[in-house]
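Feature request disguised as a bug report, sorry. It would help if multi-protein outputs had a clear separator. Right now it looks like this:
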Amino acid sequence: MSFDTKRAVRLALILAATASMAACASKPKPMPEPGPGPTGPVGPSQPQPQPGPGPVEQGVLPGSQQDFVINVGDFVYFDLDSYEVRGDAAPILDAQAGWLQRYPNVQVRIEGNADERGTREYNLALGARRANAVRDYLVSRGVSSSRIATISWGKERPVDPGTGEEAWARNRNGHTVIVSGAR
């Protein structure tokens, strides 16, 4: 073999080896699509988050001001230019009297209010009569008068700032406010 022949044979062997290696090489396998996740245990178990204690019960504390407002009612309403306790106010005032007898340390203030019509003096007097009418009703149901204060706001503290019969009707009220002793 001549030098060129040896070189040609080496070159042919190198090419043949490269071709055979290339023929043995396989295409990369496609990666599986990511699934929804492992369906069984994959590794050491991870601590699972435990459910929390859940929402805290937001109950109304018996004997609280919230209990009084929600479960009894703190407003009663009056007709125009009247301080007579209406029939629809009696159940609310009866419930107020019962609640106040259950919680004998509670002190209340009855606030008498009027709508925007009328003079300031007239509305202050009407608000005072309304507050006294509510107080007298509660006293007639066994609540000690020493636990009840009254005040008239006249038309100075409207519940509804609107005008018109609907707003005026809401502003003609006796509002029972707990001032002390509630939980």
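(second protein starts here, but nothing in the output says so)
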Amino acid sequence: MTQVKAWAGYLLPKLGQFLFVVVATYTLVFVLVHFLPGDPLIAALAAKGGASTVIDPAELDALRVQYGLDGSLWQQYFGHLIAAAQGDLGVSISTGVPVTEMIARAFPFSVQIASLALLFGVTSAVLITFLAYAAPWPWLRQLLLQIPPFGIAVPAFLSGLLLISVFAFSLGWLPSAGARSWDAAILPAITLALPVGALFFQVFSSAVLEAQNSPFVFTAVAKGVPPRRIFTKHLLRNAMLPSITILGLLIGYLAGGTAVVETVFSRDGIGRMTVNAVLARDINVIQGVVLVVGAIYALVNLLVDVAYGFIDPRTRIGGGLPSRARLGAKK
């Protein structure tokens, strides 16, 4: 019973944070798109049909009802929020297709490159950290530690164009565009993995190198335990908590990063769909995509908090600690 109360006290505030993030995300994007200069429906129709588009006022009123843009701002706000809670994200002004259906079609393509990017980035960060830990010379360790930050320094559009030029046009090993074959996801995933791996590396390597100076590692070294065993058995476990936290944050980064990568590689997905919606002033698609991405980001962070509760039961005491405090405690 005590465990149930501890879990309830720990999880209820997290669930409240999840709902707050989702509603706040929806509110922010609603305010932004509705307070831009001009009528959003007329702007979207002009972007679709050209600046010379002429629409009858009666037809315009009918279109407002069709796309859920009639009534006051409060009526639209609560009407869209209630409909979204029921799974209805409205109809695209540009295509006339339900936004839910558009997102369902594009979502698997974005998940494919985001998952591969996370796998490539995390694997390379762990491998480089291990090589730096096991390096016999200090200069080699410092050299390895300086490699991952290049992933953040180089913009995604530039690294993507370089990868296309080398592996698609020069060598012809991989396709440069499209999303219909499995190998078409490799170059976009590598492009996205460079900054993702660099961000993960900053937290993971710091945790590992700090744990390296711990007494238990000193004892293991004195006993003659091989570096690979010390790394996998002791250092990985101690670096797990801060690494899980940064993984949750990287999900949000991946959601934004797909917009650039999918545009560079002419690839279908949530990111490219969002760029097209912004250019067409299609506010129903913009609101729907941002709400879904925000909900996924909040859900991932909720799962991270639940994982924290399992990995370190001390975080459940008193409802857990804020993320930054937890990271600081590990440092």
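Even a blank line would do. Unrelated, but nice: The mean pLDDT is 81.
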